[in-house]
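Journal club side-thread
Mid-discussion, someone asked how the predicted structure for our own chain would compare to the paper's figures. Pasting it here so we can look after the session.
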Amino acid sequence: MNYHDEAVRRLAEGFAEEFAESVASDERLHELVMELASEFVEKNIPIVNEDDATDVAMELLMNTTVRKV
């Protein structure tokens, strides 16, 4: 790995936790994850009642976390 790549990796590593916190608190992420959860429920879980499907999607959203790895 060259010095530039190493510097970029270290810089990103230093901001990774702050970035994760910023992303996790952004309403756009919540909207996107809710949309993805709704699509997942529609595709994978045979729930007929729309309110119940929304409730399951919301529970999936609430059980999803963004964190630094």
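Post-session note: Helices lie at 3-24, 27-44, 50-62.
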